[in-house]
Every structure is written in structure tokens, then in C-alpha cells.
Amino acid sequence: MPKIKTQFVCQSCGYQSSKSLGKCPECGTWNSFVEETVSGQPAPSRSPDKILNSFKNVDSSTYVDLSESAQTLDQIEVHTDHRISTLIPEFDRVLGGGIVKGSLVLVGGEPGIGKSTLMLQMAAQLKQKTLYISGEESVYQIKSRAERIVAKTNNMLVYAETNMNKILQEIMQTKPQIVVIDSIQTLYRDEIESAPGSVSQVRECTALLMHLAKTRGISIFLVGHVTKDGAIAGPKVLEHIVDTVLQFEGDQNHLFRILRATKNRFGSTNEIGIFEMRDKGLIEISNPSELFLSERHLNQPGSVVVPVVEGSRVLLVEIQALVSPTSYGMPQRTTSGFDLRRLQLLIAVLEKRARIPLGQHDVFLNIAGGLKADEPALDLGVALAIASSYRDAMIDPYTVVMGEIGLGGEIRAVSFAERRIREAIKLGFESAVIPKSNTKDLTGMKETKVLGVRRLEEVFEAMLKK
Questions:
Q1: What is the mean pLDDT of the chain?
Q2: How many Å apart are CA 401 and CA 420, to the nearest integer?
Q3: 3-state class of 156 per DSSP?
Q4: What H or E segment, with its residue span, contains residue 151?
Q5: With 69 labelled, which of 118, 208, 330, 395 sits at a CA distance of 20 to 30 A?
Q6: What fold, for 291-463?
Q7: Where are the domains positioned within the chain?
Q8: Which superfamily does CATH assign the domain made up of 84-285 to?
Q9: Across 29-33, 53-57, 451-455, least confident range
Q10: Can you tell me the distance from the alpha carbon of 29 to that of 270, in angstroms, rounded to the nearest whole number?
Q11: DSSP letters for 287-338
Q12: Rg (CA), the chain
């Protein structure tokens, strides 16, 4: 009998060790090592071509051979197939215009955020033949959920299975155009002696699905779990293999969800899709700026509106700041939706350049609605909100501000200033405070008042009034 050995594998980066370690020396993650069995027998052939061709009743007429010799770019024939619409415009926006044939898409997010709901809505509405594979729910549960969120589900096939070999056999026989796997961490192969969800299983199953997508032209969606730190569970190689990585953001205490592309080989990574979670599933938000400002209170100190650019759209968000004397020896700096280090830098600039003493005050900053934003144009809004709260001074509720702040207190130019102002006009704002260097690029802005500023002192003098 061959001797059975064990090894410990980091579930974050795949580093292997003969003994368990508290901290991974490769990626620095704590308590990430899991014991896996290593057989003394030689590993079976894992060539994707051999695995896929080993199934019975498989039609090889649509198989694409990837083992061709090297070619010049002029010899390669490109098939400009149109993208497949998901019939969910916000989802199409994030994907870059629709589903690309033969693409592998990874969708991650916290439990209960809406990953499975979005995948089921898409799969049930598509006109193309779709196979929905679930390793977490039975077919009866999927049917019950589909009836609640979608009226008709004629083109969708449902299959509840976790064995990778059976799943590949089913895909070969049914020949779907689109496959949804919920989730990748539940799949396993008998040939690999480790538990489902381990590094070996996730990496092997994803590699097989990638080869299947590229050779058969099948578009595959993978649902992935996330760790407590918010990263997609499994090794980083999982994100490198796939074509697109979509991340669901949002708080379960809020109704809306944000779908963001962190990697996209077929489109922009700056696009976001905004949805609202309701009883009937995820509903698209056509005017997200109106949603973020719906509960805003006018004439309240520490509140300012900033237009931010996310991909091809402009969103108007409310920045709220609260400054109060500290009750402890060390003042607190707390932020929600904004980078904490950037906040500390702006506080230092306010103390040095604007003479606002915040050393004995707690500073709390929040981007209303749970949105996360980190672009430089937010700097001026953050600084103005903090100064407004400290001085207990009102800010004109119908004015938007934008601008990057330098360490010398100067206001630097931002991108797409005219687009930001025009979006604010649509929602009823009457004036804007922008960097002076941006005013020369504006055309036809007579319908609103634009104030160009060069330094922080100018902004505070014009905006902060008791």
C-alpha cells in the first residue's frame, strides 16, 4: 500500500508546508493553513483536453483546438460576435455591454447580499439556453425562488450537483450557451484528495471550467464566497484565471446594492451597477443620485454634496461630518465610505493651512447611503464638511463642490468638471464651487453660478456663514 502523506496549504495564496503555521510566510495571512491529503500514487492525468474528451456522447464538432502553432496577428481570424444582453441594463453596463461568448465571470460578495438572486434573475430571463447549477440548494428551492422573482423560466435548465465530473458530463450533453455555477467553493473532483472549497479543488475546478469556456464558446458565471476581510475566498490565482471579477457591495441594513467590476478584460473596471433589494428580487435604480440624496436634510451644518464619477455616470453623494470635543486623551478619526488615511491627511491640512484646531476634537465622516468612493474630487467636500461642523455654520444646500486639495492648501483641477456640473443642474442645484483651473474648460454654463477657487481660505470665506 502506498504511504499516505499530508501537507498544509494556505487557503489564501496556496503556499504549501509540511507543518501547520500560524502565519503564512508567503502572503502574511493568519490561521489560513488547512491540512490536505497527498497520495503516494502518481497523480492521474489532468490535461483539460483529455478530461473533456473522456465523457460519453460528446459531440466534438463544436470543439475548438487551442493547441495550434504560433501565428502572426494578420493570420488570426476574429469573429466579431455581438454580446448577449442579460436584459438587465445595469448588469450589462458593468459587464461592458453584455455577456461575451466564451467568457468566465466571477461574482463575489458577502452572504445574503444578492449574488444568487441576480444570477437567477439573469438565467431565468435569457432567451439563450441556460444551465443553472447549484451546489447549495435543491431544485425545489430554486424553483420556489424563481417563481417569486421571475414570471417565466422556460429556457433555463436546473441541475443540483457538486461532483465536477457529473457537471461536465451534463454540460456536454445539454450544450447550453450560458452556465451559472453557484458556488465554485462547493465543487470537487474525486481525483483530488482534499475537501471541497480547498485550494486544490477550487483551482482545479476553475481551470477545467475556463478550458471548457474557451474551447466550447460557453459563457460561464461563477459565484464565489468571500472571507471575513471581504476578499473572494480561495487563492488569488482564481481571480487571475477568470476574465471578469464582479464584486457586490452594500450593507444588509440598506436596501440598495452596488455591483462593481474589479477586473474586466472586455470592458471598463470603473463601471458600477446599482440595484435595490425588494421582495421580487433586485430592482434597477435608474436615478441613483436621487436615491442617495432622498433623505438629505437642508440647512444642516456638516453636510455638503459632491458629484463623483463612476465609470460613465456621475453620482451626486452627500458627505456628512461631525466634529465634537474629545472625551479621551487621543481624538478619534472614524470614517465610513472614505479612506481613513486620506481623512487624516486632510485634517492635517486644515490644521496647518486653514488654522482649524482639530487636535482636541473627534472627527466622524460618512458618505450617506453606504456608498464607497475614493476619488480626489471628494477632498474639497470633505474639508468643507469638517469645517462646517466645527464652526457650526450652514452651507448653501443648492451648491455642489469638487476639487482635490494639495498639502499646501491649494485646490487642484478635477476631471470631467462640466459633466459633474450638468448632472447637478438636472437635480435642481443652482451653483458649483470648482477649482479655478477648471473654469476655462467650461462651455455654455450660463444656467448656473460657478465659483472658481484656488485655495481653501477662499472656499471657507465664500461658503461658511453662520
A1: 85
A2: 10
A3: strand
A4: none
A5: 208
A6: Ribosomal Protein S5; domain 2 (3.30.230)
A7: 5-38, 84-285, 291-463
A8: P-loop containing nucleotide triphosphate hydrolases (3.40.50.300)
A9: 53-57
A10: 28
A11: -HHHHHTTTPPSS-TTEEEEEEEETTEEEEEEEEEEEEE-SSSS--EEEESS
A12: 26
